[in-house]
Structure formats: structure tokens, C-alpha cells
Amino acid sequence: MVVGYPACMKREWWILAIFVGALGAFFATTQLHDSEPDVDMTDMGPLEIREDTTRLLEPVEDGVIDYAEALNVGLVPAAADNAAIPLLRVLGTGALVGDPGAVLRRIGAPADLPVAGTLQRPQDEVAEQLAMTDLTERAGNETIETWIAQNQAALDTVVAASERAHLWTPVVRSEERGLIMPALSADRLTVVTNALATRAEIARTQGRLAGGWRDAEALLRLHDLTAAQPGVVSRMVACSFHRLGIEWLERLLSEDRPDLVLCTQIIARLGGLPPVRSIRTDLDQYERYMTLDGLVTNAGDATAVGLNPALRETNRTFDAAVALFDEEDAGLFERVRSFVSTRQSEVKRISKELQGTAGKLQAWAEVVAS
């Protein structure tokens, strides 16, 4: 069986990410004091906190909207339910954006989490091969297999972390990138997810299917946890985790005699995936707020010439993009939006194939028994 990953993952998602990134970069890097923006220069006053400029009216800090704190309002999971804490034990607090101490206090993590983490940082060659090579090639690579063997305990911690109900760290400001973003960015997880997929494939080639499925299922759970993080980029990274899990299932189903019991377990697991949040929400809130925040921050102070008109123009741009999600024939954005239902359809298709395989195996078993 060949499970095709949705085309929008390969093209529309990246186009949308480029659009959002270019939009944010344009506004965030425009020097309002030194340039001549094409705005209404009769509006020369200080920053006006209004819906058409800042969009949000609170919280206000030093005369400007604290967009990071606005995005943090809501669920703060209990420490025992937050996958971020064991993941930080593996990755180390050095993976955090912002003030590590403040982030750890916010999520209720112990202060003694290591800076470097328990996962041995892969050498450049191993890191590149983990990210670029085919799963089958990774499983047969002695250098990668040695690195995987050295990090079994750390990867087991990642699997256990994926079973928690939430993955949450506060949105903070990255001084390095000049943007607000989750303190534990989704892209920090790619090394461990590539390692899990590789360990799953090694287990499959050695006939340890249950161990392989344990890691593949963890990848699917990490997708669900990461996809709930704010931002289109988080969703794109989460899709890569989902793809790795599906790729392993492809290999399992390609075997001449798939394991009947394991197939039944997988069918049950794929039937209970949670709904996925619309990308429209990310665009309308996180991406918009990130861009508005970058524009205000880059201006230097709330009295910058042309700041209010520039904010209004930014909002009009995002309003137009968000509106495309509400149209019947929205082209690119409609196809991106349909990824949510496409993913569920893909899961149903895999489940149906597994049921058919299980039925054939059952029939074969009955023939043998007779």
C-alpha cells in the first residue's frame, strides 16, 4: 500500500509560510524613522490603541500592547500534564527562547533541569543524515545506529512525554530573531522525532514490531501536541512528525504478512485522533499579532511617524488573507484550509486498508486452521 501525503503539505503550506514570513519580515524590518512609507502623513500622532491599529486593546505594557502575554492567556496545564517538562529534560533548557528561569517558573518545572539535556547532541554528519536520508538508509547506517543506541533512555523519555495531555510553553520575545514565539519552538523537536522514526524502522527491520509501533505512535501523538501550538510554522513542523509516523506504517503494511494483533491496535489508535484547529485561527491571531508586535517594536517607540497608518495597513492585509478562508472558491487558501479534512481522510483510508489487511489475515488463519 502507498499512502500519499497531501500535496498541500508539499506546496501550499510552504507558500503560505513564505507569504506570512515575507509579510512579517517586511513590516518588522521597515525603518519608520528613516524611510518614506506610503501612508497618510496627516496622522502624525503617537500610537493609538484601537481595534483598527493594535487590534487588541489590552494588556498594555509601557504604552504598547503586550502581544506575547495576550497569547498566553488561557490554559496553563498542570506540570504533570505538560509534555514540555520531560522534553526539556531531554533537550536541555538551552533549547528555550527567552529567559529560561522565567519560563521554567511559568510552567512549574523544577529549577534543576539541565542546560545541555540528556540527549547527546549528534555530530554534524549524523544530524544531517537523520534529517535528509530515507528511513531505510538510516536504519542501515552504522553511525546512526550507534548514536541511537547511545540515546535509548533519552528517546524513551520522549515517548513517555508524548503521552501527556498538553505541550505548552509561554509565548516570549526572541531577542535574537526579533519576534514573539513559543519558548520551546516546534523546530527544536525535529532531532528527537527523526531519531524516533529511525529507531522505529530499526525495530521493524529486526522484527520487533511492537517496539517500532510504540515509537511511530509517539510521533503521531507529538503531531497532535505540536499542532496545537500557535503559528503556521508550528503546524508545518507538526506535519513532518505526522509524515514520519505514516511513513513507518507504510513499511509495516508492505510486509507480506503484517502482524494481525498489531494491525488491530493501530486501527483502534487511528480511530481516535482529535480534531485539528483551523489555520485561519493562526493567521488571524498569532501571525497577525506577531507582525503587529514586530512593527511596533521596530519603530523604537510609540511616537514613530506613520506608525498608526502602517498598523492599519497591516490589519487590512491580514483581514484580506483571513477573508479568503471564508470564500467558497479561495484557491490557494482554500486548499490549505482543506488540509485539515485531508488529514482525517488520510487516516480513514489507512484505517480502512488496515481493516482489509486484518480481514485477509483472519481469513488466511481460518483456512490454515481448517
Distance between the termini: 29 Å
Which overall shape is indicated by the principal axes computed on the Cα atoms? elongated
Q: Number of helical segments? A: 17
Mean pLDDT over the residues = 76
Report Rg: 23 Å
Q: Structural class, from helix and strand content?
A: mainly alpha
Strand content: under 5%
In percent, how helical is the residue content?
Answer: 55-70%
Number of strands: 4
pLDDT below 50 for ≥5 consecutive residues: which ranges?
1-39, 328-337
Spatial strand sequence of the major β-sheet: 1-2
List key phrases describing it.
370 residues; mainly alpha; two-stranded antiparallel sheet; 17 helices; 4 strands; 3% strand; elongated
In short:
The protein has 370 residues and is mostly helical. The chain is built from 17 helices and 4 strands.
Write the layout of secondary structure elements.
Layout: H1 7-10, H2 12-29, E1 60-61, E2 64-65, H3 67-72, H4 84-91, H5 100-107, H6 124-132, H7 135-139, H8 142-150, H9 152-162, E3 171-174, E4 179-182, H10 190-205, H11 209-227, H12 232-253, H13 260-270, H14 279-299, H15 307-324, H16 332-337, H17 339-369
Helix pairs in contact: 2-14, 4-9, 9-11, 10-11, 10-12, 11-12, 13-17, 14-15
Structural notes for this entry:
The protein is mostly helical and 370 residues long. The chain has helices spanning 7-10, 12-29, 67-72, 84-91, 100-107, 124-132, 135-139, 142-150, 152-162, 190-205, 209-227, 232-253, 260-270, 279-299, 307-324, 332-337, 339-369; strands at residues 60-61, 64-65, 171-174, 179-182. The strands form two sheets. A two-stranded antiparallel ribbon has the order 1-2. A two-stranded antiparallel ribbon has the order 3-4. A hairpin with a 4-residue loop joins strand 3 and strand 4 (179-182). It is elongated, with a radius of gyration of 23 Å.
